[in-house]
């Protein structure tokens, strides 16, 4: 009866040839694959080899990457709510100079629709008190302060407004507003971190 001897496993390079490193063997096999492709290989085998190569390339890229891949991010938004078309266009043009995307609305109802769709992306709400539609800017400001508290809230009006009517978080800028004042608020809104995605 023949006895089988067990011994310690040999290093990987010794199982093939002690003098040929594994990376050289891999390069040789890759060149064989290239020759096979040029001579013609059954499509299902070629697809399998391509998939293996792609997986290896993806793993290598992931190992070589020093920066973790960033999650897909949506641009932050400045929402301008103003029923006067010329003033709204002026505010939109001004805010386009910031890093925020600008969306204009003429009513609180339209602004709420934008907030419902993109509320997590809205960094700034710049709203007049008098608006087209059923709701005014104060009602919109209260809704924003309650439902989207991470958005910076700036309210404007050509009329004096008693402070108690405004939400505590809101900033009031009287009309005619200065472009610098609006830009300062936009920069503050853009500087605040976006709320986490839940």
Describe it for me?
- The protein folds into 2 domains: 13-64, no CATH class; 77-191, Rossmann fold, CATH 3.40.50.2300.
- Strand 3 (122-128), helix 6 (137-147) and strand 4 (152-157) form a beta-alpha-beta unit.
- By secondary structure, it is of the alpha/beta class.
- Helix 5 (108-118) runs parallel beside helix 6 (137-147).
- It has a 5-stranded parallel β-sheet, sandwiched between helices.
- Helix content is 46%, strand content 14%.
- It is built from 7 helices and 5 strands.
- Residues 1-6, 10-15 and 66-72 have low confidence and may be disordered.
- InterPro entries: Bact_response_regulator, CheY-like_superfamily, Sig_transdc_resp-reg_receiver.
- The modification 4-aspartylphosphate is found at residue 128.
- Keywords: Phosphoprotein.
- Residues 77-190 form the Response regulatory domain.
Supply the CATH architecture of the largest domain: 3-Layer(aba) Sandwich
CATH superfamily of the largest domain: Response regulator
Distinct helical segment count: 7
The average pLDDT value, as a whole number, equals: 78
CATH topology of the largest domain: Rossmann fold
Radius of gyration: 31 Å
């Amino acid at each position: 009866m023949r006895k089988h001897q067990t011994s310690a496993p040999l290093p990987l390079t010794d199982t093939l040839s002690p003098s040929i490193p594994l990376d050289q063997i891999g390069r040789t096999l890759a060149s064989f694959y290239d020759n096979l492709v040029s001579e013609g290989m059954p499509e299902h085998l070629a697809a399998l080899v391509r998939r293996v190569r792609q997986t290896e390339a993806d793993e290598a890229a992931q190992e070589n990457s020093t920066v973790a891949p960033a999650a897909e991010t949506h641009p932050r938004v400045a929402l301008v709510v103003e029923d006067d078309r010329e003033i709204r266009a002026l505010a939109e043009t001004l805010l386009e100079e910031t890093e925020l995307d600008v969306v204009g609305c003429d009513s609180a109802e339209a602004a709420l629709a934008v907030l419902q769709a993109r509320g997590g992306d809205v960094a700034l709400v710049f709203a007049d008190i008098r608006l087209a539609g059923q709701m005014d800017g104060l009602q919109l400001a209260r809704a924003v302060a309650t439902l989207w508290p991470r958005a910076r809230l700036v309210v404007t009006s050509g009329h004096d407004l008693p402070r108690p009517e405004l939400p505590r978080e809101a900033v009031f800028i009287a009309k005619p507003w200065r472009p610098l004042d609006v830009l300062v608020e936009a920069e503050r809104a853009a500087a605040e971190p976006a709320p986490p995605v839940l």
